[in-house]
Each structure stands twice: as structure tokens, then as C-alpha cells.
């Protein structure tokens, strides 16, 4: 009998002592070496479960991991529905990004693992049993394995720790709500009625701000905002070279002093919306969603924003889209990264979706539900090509001065150390080997 587990666990010794089994683990836990010694002393065979990312394919020869991420996941979560489409999208993103059992094991990997097991084990006569930590996705994982006729047990570990973490997050949320309530009471915000504005979330830019502002058709009434609080040094440097700090807002307070404005208040009273919670985690996420939505709503009211432009597909983007819709405005989403269709965890909420590829790839019901209109734009940053060509010419001149007679551009795929879940070192080495042989 073959036992597959996320990492070596004590219960395996108790349950399978003196039984003829072979254990395959996915990851090394903190006590891995300790368990390994005990397992071997007891005569239990232990192996690291490995496979080649590229060899796990479906019947059409398409990589199973990408098949699940961009196609099968829509079928898996077909019945994941809530009355509020914005919260539904927000909540699904959260549970898909919540790591299982405090390990590196990502939820979508559970479904891919079923395909791996089918490929590696089900041709064997020996029985296969899987043990994975439980999560909010239990019923979906169980059904997927059941349909593939693979026996799986979803066990609960660190229950007390999970409750402590939940309590910590819940108290943190209540303190936030109390903080905003105090600000409402002591600080009466008065907003001047300004011209209607378009708000650009900074991630949309990914360029030099001066080049953006100098575009002939760039709107005069605008604000920029940053919610993720990433690349703060890069943002601050760009703001130092422009005169738009008064039009730039950080939602929430960055830890360091930066150019621009800070917005961190909620001006309206929260109306309680009745919702049936299935569990405490869902309730926590709903309250987080409402708080996030009210933060964005207050910001849009302060800046008199009616159009929200972004390329983020984060969970808070769903809340921001909900906020602008309640104010009678609209959300524009611009696709920057190439994908034929969005994976289920990167679907945005928008009124207008500018996409790169073929529209038929976006006909999936869940994509259509969360986005109203689709416009094929091509790569939106192609206006930057002249600037990059100038930089490329400078590099070309330097190379030629140093003796280069021929210059070839080679674009490779990003890779990770663990080649089971994505392109690993081995695949990348083969790509470079192919390239070197071609130019020799």
C-alpha cells in the first residue's frame, strides 16, 4: 500500500505500525529528520514524491497544472455562489490563496496532485491513500479525488493554533473598526465638491510617470492611488521627479514618510447587511470585505472619483469595484500580463475589461458575471516601445564596441527551484541548452 502525505506526521507511525506500506511525502516539515530516523528504525519505507512538471499532461497533451488553473477550476467551483458577486470573488480569492496547514502547500495544488497520482500510481496494483490537511475547500477537494477514484483523508491539525490565529485576526478587525469609528466621531471630514476624476491605481502604470502624464490624451482631472504599499521607494523616486504629489494617495498609512497624501478613514456609517455565514472564517472575511469597501468608498467620495482604473486582480480590488459601483461609477480593468483567459483566482470585478487575446476565451460564465464589457486592446504598454528602443540601441552600441558581431535576444520563462509545481531548473537548463546549440 502506498501512502501519500504532505509531510511526515506522527499519526502515520501510530496508524500503520507493523503494516506493509511505503510512504511518499511532498514537503519537509520542521521535524522531518527526526521522523525520518524513527520511520526507518520501524522499518517503514519513506520516499520523497517527485515528478517532472512537463510530463503530467491531459489527453490532449496540455499541461495538467495549467489545465486546472485556467480551465478545470471553473468546473470545480461551478457551485461556489453568493448573492453578492463582489464578495463571492473576494472570498474565493482568499480561500484559494490560503496555504494549507501553515505549509507551502497551495490549495490549487491539491487538485493537480490528484492528476499526478493518477499518472504515477494508479497503474500499480498497490492501493493508494492520500492524507492532506483540511481547509475551506474540503468538499471540492474530496469530490475531485472521488471522481478520480482516489481515496483521500482530509485531517485537521493544529486546531487550537487555527483558533488562536482566527481570534487574533478577529480582534485586529474589531480594533480597526473602532479606530475608524473614533475618527468619525472626533474628526468631521468636509469634502469640497471638485471636478469628477479618474483614479489610476499605481500598478496600472508600471512606467515612468512623466511619460504617462505627457501623453496628449491623458485626462486633466485625475488622481493616482496605491493600496498594496509595494515598491514604495520606486514610487517615491518617481514622485520626486514630478509635480503630482498632491494628486497621489496612499490608502492606509505606509510605515515610512513619503511624498503624496495618506488616506485612512471611513466617513459613512456601516449598514448591517444580513448574510448567512457557513463558518467563522467566512464571517471574518465578509467583515473584512465590508471594511475594505467602505475605505475605498470614502476615498472615492473625497476625491470625487467616478472611474477607477486598475490592473490589480487582488482581493481588495473586488471591494474597490463594489465601492465605486455603489457611488454610480465604474471600474476599468486593463490586462498587462499575457494569458489566454484569467485563472479563477485572478478574475477581477469590472465594468470594462481590456484584454489581450481572443474573446471566445472569456466566454466562461464566471468571467462574464464579474465583468460587463470586453474590449480587445492588445498590449496596452506598446506606446513605450520608442523609449525602450532608445535604451536597447545604447546597449547594442556598448556590445559592438566590445567586439560583438551578432546580437540575439532570448526571452526565457521564469522558473522555481521546485520543478514539480512549475518550470524548474531542469526545464530552464534545457531551454538554454537549445539556445546555445542553435547559435554555435
Question: What percent of residues adopt helix (DSSP H or I)?
Answer: 40-55%
Report strand order across the widest sheet: 9-8-7-6-10-11-12-13
Radius of gyration, in Å, reads: 26 Å
The count of strands amounts to: 13
**Looking at the structure, what is the overall shape?**
globular
Return the average pLDDT rounded to an integer: 85
β-strand amount? 5-15%
Task: Provide an overview of this structure.
- By secondary structure, this protein is of the alpha/beta class.
- It folds into three domains: 2-157, no CATH class; 163-382, 3-Layer(aba) Sandwich (Rossmann fold); 384-439, no CATH class.
- Helix content is 42%, strand content 14%.
- The chain contains 14 helices and 13 strands.
- It has helices spanning 10-16, 32-41, 64-76, 85-97, 107-120, 138-147, 159-186, 209-213, 232-240, 280-303, 315-326, 365-370, 385-401, 425-439; strands spanning 2-5, 22-25, 45-48, 128-133, 151-155, 197-201, 222-226, 248-251, 261-263, 305-310, 330-334, 350-355, 371-376.
- The protein has an eight-stranded parallel sheet with strand order 9-8-7-6-10-11-12-13.
- Helix 10 packs across helix 11.
- The longest helix has 28 residues, at 159-186.
- The two termini are 50 Å apart.
- The mean pLDDT is 85.
Amino acid at each position: 500500500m502506498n501512502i501519500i502525505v504532505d509531510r511526515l506526521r506522527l499519526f502515520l507511525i501510530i496508524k500503520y505500525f507493523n503494516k506493509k506500506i511505503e510512504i511518499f511525502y511532498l514537503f519537509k516539515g520542521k521535524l522531518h529528520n527526526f521522523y525520518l530516523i524513527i520511520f526507518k528504525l520501524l522499518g517503514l519505507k519513506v520516499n520523497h514524491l517527485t515528478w517532472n512538471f512537463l510530463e503530467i499532461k491531459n489527453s490532449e497533451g496540455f499541461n495538467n497544472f495549467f489545465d486546472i488553473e485556467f480551465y478545470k477550476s471553473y468546473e470545480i467551483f461551478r457551485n461556489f455562489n453568493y448573492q453578492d458577486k463582489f464578495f463571492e470573488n473576494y472570498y474565493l480569492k482568499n480561500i484559494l490563496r490560503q496555504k494549507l496547514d501553515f505549509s507551502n502547500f497551495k490549495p490549487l495544488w491539491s487538485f493537480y496532485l490528484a492528476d499526478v497520482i493518477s499518472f504515477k500510481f494508479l497503474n500499480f496494483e498497490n492501493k493508494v491513500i492520500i492524507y492532506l490537511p483540511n481547509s475551506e475547500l474540503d468538499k471540492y477537494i474530496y469530490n475531485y479525488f472521488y471522481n478520480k477514484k482516489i481515496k483521500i483523508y482530509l485531517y485537521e491539525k493544529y486546531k487550537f493554533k487555527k483558533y488562536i490565529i482566527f481570534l487574533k485576526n478577529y480582534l485586529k478587525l474589531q480594533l480597526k473598526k473602532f479606530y475608524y469609528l473614533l475618527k468619525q466621531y472626533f474628526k468631521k471630514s468636509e469634502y469640497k465638491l471638485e471636478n469628477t476624476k479618474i483614479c489610476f491605481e499605481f500598478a496600472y502604470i508600471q512606467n515612468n510617470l512623466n511619460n504617462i502624464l505627457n501623453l496628449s490624451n491623458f485626462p486633466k482631472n485625475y488622481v493616482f492611488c496605491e493600496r498594496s504599499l509595494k515598491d514604495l521607494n520606486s514610487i517615491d523616486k518617481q514622485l520626486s521627479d514630478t509635480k503630482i504629489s498632491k494628486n497621489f494617495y496612499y490608502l492606509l498609512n505606509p510605515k515610512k514618510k513619503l511624498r503624496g497624501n495618506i488616506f485612512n478613514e471611513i466617513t459613512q456609517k456601516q449598514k448591517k447587511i444580513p448574510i448567512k455565514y457557513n463558518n467563522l472564517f467566512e464571517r471574518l472575511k465578509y467583515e473584512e470585505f465590508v471594511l475594505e469597501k467602505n475605505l475605498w468608498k470614502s476615498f472615492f467620495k473625497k476625491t470625487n472619483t467616478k472611474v477607477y482604473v486598475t490592473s490589480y486582480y487582488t482581493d481588495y480590488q473586488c471591494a474597490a469595484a463594489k465601492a465605486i459601483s455603489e457611488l454610480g461609477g465604474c471600474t476599468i480593468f486593463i490586462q498587462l500580463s499575457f494569458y489566454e483567459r484569467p485563472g479563477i483566482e485572478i478574475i477581477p470585478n469590472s465594468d470594462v475589461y481590456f484584454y489581450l487575446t481572443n474573446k471566445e476565451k472569456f466566454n466562461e460564465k464566471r468571467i462574464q458575471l464579474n465583468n460587463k464589457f470586453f474590449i480587445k486592446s492588445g498590449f496596452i504598454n506598446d506606446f513605450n516601445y520608442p523609449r525602450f528602443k532608445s535604451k536597447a540601441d545604447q546597449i547594442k552600441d556598448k556590445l559592438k564596441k566590445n567586439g560583438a558581431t551578432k546580437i540575439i535576444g532570448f526571452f526565457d520563462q521564469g522558473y522555481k527551484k521546485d520543478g514539480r509545481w512549475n518550470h524548474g531548473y531542469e526545464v530552464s537548463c534545457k531551454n538554454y541548452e537549445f539556445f546555445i546549440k542553435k547559435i554555435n
